[in-house]
């Protein structure tokens, strides 16, 4: 064995990476070569000194470093959990937001019309008392009569359609309505009425 | 540490890491507490300067926090954090190379650097840690190592990692690690022989 190979084996030995045969071989060489023997001793001492010294040097991070680090990291990622869900499901989020907006706008439209609304051609032919709209006996309303959020009492004549939205109507035996009578209660009907009304309005203009 | 202790410690690490990844700041603080000294010691040996070592510790943990989503749980947490810290140290060494001729091994004045001579600096001097002459000599010898051997030697003797683990940390094949350990060890042997430590 030459000294170069012996040197490699020495290092392998200190790496803990040597076979028994190689170790025997190395020992044989060390016994016959004083230069390698000295090198081996020195390497052994280097190894031991390094391990022992580094292990026994207590070097610790300065006080306050932990709190400094904790101050620098961004505060509370927890709040962003719902944001993550949103980022993961964009389509679902869009659908949910759409439904929410629709619901609120419909509700607000319905709520806004909570007071009594009367649409009629000649207002002097009807009597309004609280939320009761009365066409007295003997009076004649020409054109359509629409009552929203109220009660319609027809005792006289209506020369047109009668529409009651979210309310009720009473028709006396003396009443005469020449057009159609419509009652709208549900939100969907109401929306449909709104839409068809818009179209007929446009059509008549 | 015996084997059982290591396994328990690893298990503890894994649990803390899992919590910290979910955003648990308490768990993260514990991880910092658990690793700060190890990282500080590593950086101190690599850079021989406590101020820079402090910076490295801080930067390392910030990166850990920011890059938790990239951490592969199959890997040991220690391997990952040592990799971040070592890379930061190597970057620093590379940046200051023009001023410090590490390869020439001329850095024998212990602890003399830009920070140490700032007047009014009340921090502990570099030599405070080094109680004995042997410790000071080892420190100087490691300081004089070329950067690429330094990281390997520090991981081997300070963190007591196996060659395989060093390879994982530095992202290089075990054969390369081996060559570097051999050369580093040989370098240190000659240094210490020269200083008549033996």
Tell me about this structure.
- The complex is a heterodimer of chains A (205) and B (198).
- By secondary structure, chain A is an alpha/beta fold.
- Chain A contains seven helices and eleven strands.
- Chain A folds into three domains: 54 residues; 51 residues, no CATH class; 88 residues, no CATH class.
- In chain A, helix 1 crosses helix 2 and helix 1 runs parallel beside helix 3.
- Chain B has 198 residues and is mainly α.
- Chain B contains eight helices and no strands.
- In chain B, helix 2 packs antiparallel against helix 3.
- Classes of the chains: A alpha/beta (205), B mainly alpha (198).
- The interface between A and B is large, with 38 and 42 residues.
- The residue ranges of chain B in which pLDDT falls below 50 over 5 or more consecutive positions are 101-124
Name the beta content range of chain A: 15-25%
Strand order of the largest sheet of chain A: 1-5-8-11
Proportion of helical residues of chain B? 55-70%
Distance between the termini of chain A: 113 Å
Protein name (chain B): RNA polymerase sigma factor
Keywords (chain B): DNA-binding, Sigma factor, Transcription, Transcription regulation
Family (chain B): Belongs to the sigma-70 factor family. ECF subfamily.
Pfam families (chain B): Sigma70_r2, Sigma70_r4_2
Summarize the structure.
By secondary structure, chain A is of the alpha/beta class. Helices cover 51% and strands 19% of the residues of chain A.
Features:
A: 205 residues; alpha/beta; 3 domains; 4-stranded mixed β-sheet; 11 strands; B: 198 residues; mainly alpha; Rna Polymerase Sigma Factor, Chain: A; globular
Write the layout of secondary structure elements.
The complex is a heterodimer of chains A (205) and B (198).
Chain A: H1 3-14, H2 20-32, H3 34-56, H4 65-72, H5 81-88, H6 90-112, E1 117-120, E2 127-129, E3 132-135, E4 140-142, E5 145-148, E6 151-154, E7 157-159, E8 162-165, E9 168-171, E10 176-177, E11 181-184, H7 187-204
Parallel strand pairs in A: 3-6, 4-7, 5-8, 6-9, 7-10, 8-11
Antiparallel strand pairs in A: 1-5, 2-3
Helix pairs in contact in A: 1-2, 1-3, 2-3
Chain B: H1 3-21, H2 25-47, H3 50-66, H4 77-95, H5 133-143, H6 147-158, H7 163-170, H8 174-194
């Amino acid at each position: 064995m030459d000294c170069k190979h012996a040197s490699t084996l020495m290092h392998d030995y200190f790496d803990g990476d040597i076979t028994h045969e190689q170790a025997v071989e190395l020992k044989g060489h060390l016994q016959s070569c004083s230069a390698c023997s000295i090198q081996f001793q020195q390497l052994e001492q280097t190894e031991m000194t390094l391990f022992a010294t580094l292990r026994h040097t207590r070097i610790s991070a300065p006080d306050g470093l932990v709190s400094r680090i904790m101050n620098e990291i961004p505060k509370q990622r927890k709040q962003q959990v719902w944001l993550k869900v949103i980022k993961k499901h964009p389509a679902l989020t869009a659908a949910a937001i759409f439904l929410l907006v629709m619901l609120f706008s419909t509700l607000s439209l319905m709520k806004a019309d909570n007071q009594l609304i009367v649409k009629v051609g000649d207002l002097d032919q009807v009597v309004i008392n609280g939320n009761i709209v009365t066409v007295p006996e003997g009076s004649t309303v020409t054109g359509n009569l629409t009552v929203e959020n109220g009660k319609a009492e027809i005792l006289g004549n209506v020369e047109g359609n009668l529409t009651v939205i979210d309310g009720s109507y009473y028709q006396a035996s003396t009443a005469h309505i020449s057009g159609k009578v419509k009652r709208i209660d549900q939100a969907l009907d109401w929306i449909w009425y709104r839409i068809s009304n818009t179209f007929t309005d446009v059509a008549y203009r | 540490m015996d084997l059982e202790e290591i396994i328990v410690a690893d298990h503890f690490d894994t649990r803390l890491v899992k919590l910290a990844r979910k955003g648990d700041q308490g768990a993260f603080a514990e991880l910092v507490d658990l690793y700060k000294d190890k990282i500080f010691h590593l950086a101190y040996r690599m850079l021989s300067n406590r101020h820079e070592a402090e910076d490295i510790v801080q930067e390392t943990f910030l990166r850990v926090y920011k890059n938790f989503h990239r951490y592969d749980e199959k890997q040991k947490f220690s391997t990952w954090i040592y990799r971040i810290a070592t890379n930061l140290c190597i970057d620093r060494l590379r940046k200051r190379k023009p001023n410090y001729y590490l390869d020439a091994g001329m850095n024998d004045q212990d602890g003399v650097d830009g920070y140490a001579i700032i007047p009014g600096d009340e921090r502990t001097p570099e030599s405070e840690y080094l109680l004995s002459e042997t410790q000071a000599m080892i420190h100087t010898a490691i300081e004089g190592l070329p950067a690429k051997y330094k990281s390997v030697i520090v991981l081997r003797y300070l963190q007591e990692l196996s060659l395989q683990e060093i390879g994982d940390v530095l992202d290089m094949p075990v054969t390369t690690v081996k060559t570097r350990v051999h050369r580093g060890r040989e370098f240190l042997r000659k240094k210490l022989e020269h200083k008549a430590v033996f």
